[in-house]
Amino acid sequence: MTTKFVRIFILLLLATGVSFPQFASAMAEVTSFSQSSGTVAFQGNSVPGYVTFELKTSEPTRGYILAVGNGIQTKINLSTMDYKTVHKMDWVPWDDTKKIPLPAGEYQLKAYMTDQGYNQISGYPLGKLTVVSETSPKPLFDQVAINPAVFAPKYGGASTVQIPFNLNRPAEVQLSIWQNGSEIYAGSKMKLLPGSHSVSWNGTDKAGRIVADGNYDVHFKYIETAYNYPATTQSAQKAGAVTVKDGDYNIPQWRLKEVVKDAVFTSDVISPDGDGVNDTVTGQFTLAEPAKVSIYIANAAGAHMNSVVSGQTFETGTHTFVWDGTDFNGGKAVNGNYYIKVMVIEGANAGYISFTDSVRFEGGYEFKALQPEKRVRVIAETAKLSVYPGGQGYTAVKGDTFPLMSETIENGKYQVLVKEGVSGTINVNDVELVVETTVPTVPNTMEYTVISGDTLWKIAAKFNTTISEIVTLNNLDPNKYLYIGQKLQVPATVSPEPTPQPVIHTVQTGDTLWKIAQKYGTTIDAIVKANNLDPAKYLYIGQKITIPSSTTTPEPPLVQPVIHTVVSGDTLWKISVKYGTTIDAIVKANNLDPAKYLYIGQKITILR
User: I want to staple 351 with a disulfide (CB 3.0 to 4.6 A). Which of 112, 250, 437, 522 is the partner?
Assistant: First the structure.
């Protein structure tokens, strides 16, 4: 194409309104060049492991630096797409063609750039770079610390573990926490320059739930960025380990008590036999704030029998539920006591709170221990049991004993009676057979067999003795449950003298044991024993109370009184048991109204 023809062509294009800014600008030139080091090594230690280039041009350009030497030439990309006047690049001496570190030697650096008018800078000399080899290259991460090495992540994220580290080359870094070969947490990806940095972990997993106690591996996942073509998949380096101990894996009890104030059954018995009486039981729970909850019916071992509310959100206030006496599979529950267990759900976190109020299931199947009784004792520090229903977990501790339900060993396990209404299996290696020794008969004692509903208090009242006497005679732990069929030594009963026909009192509105005792000139203890009552439970209107004939008991000689200071959980009954006295004696000595609550710090005079 002739020069004259080109000029005519351009004039025609300009006449149509087409503009050509590239014709109006000057050709780009290199205005400055610098490099952070004249010597570099691949993953260097005594010398830098990377070099930073900065090249400036008079006009926006894109292109690369060519490193030539040792019969090799390799590109160092500055910008492949965008036009810039300032190009800055971190570069590791790497041969992109052979995928190996650049061999040691001296390399000439030349610029190859193109501006927006397609004018080129070809082979502009920039200087030289010396590449050396090192036998002990520096790792990407060093100076890693994990503080603390043992920590307890808390609900709400207040507790964290800090992980400071030094980065030796530019990289995209991501914290990763692993356990048993699986990643359970991954932090945010961060593009970092060499230097000191720090990341933290609050002990949660990918879903945001606090992890269980245990040992966890700390990893850094990374992609080194000082390459012409950085990797597209991450590499990983183990940085250390951290132990989680006493963490809030479940929502803590203090928080659960803030949310759920109470949960009770509205009747004492459920017997679903189709007669229309006690075929179902109603319960209620009270929330102090709106919450998402699930409600479970749990047996004496805490295992879930059934779910009556599943993951529903309720407003503040009292709400009700109904249980029909079935298990998860629709079958009848086993005879025994059942409790309310509430699961609170807050985001990814959940926790259980159990309540002591119970309902008695009657008319169903009953788990029974071997007769004559044979027991096993836990010899391991802890033992995991699989319990009814559905093989749920239960933990026993060293020294716990369980009655055998069968002497047959199946799959290395015994079947035992864990609690009333709860069967389970335990590993043979975790227990030993208890060698039964015959308890010598104490003069004036007799043998009593525990029945359903028995407590130490009821048995003591039945045989006109004290809890302490029964505990001593049988070497019992008063904090542990009795079990059906258990044999106890109790004081032999003496045939009572003939007594007049007792008076029957019908409970009316406002009646209390104290008022009834005052009305008939008797004592609370006498009424409790005559009617086999639990003094901690309320009377109900219409209830029939047998009033024993009044008797005059000589006052025991007075001794130096003991002053008891009321603590949390104290009741008149608990205090009377502790000091081997009676509720009436405490009431009279302190001029108390037994219908009113004690208060913490209250001083009680004990006459014994």
Answer: 250
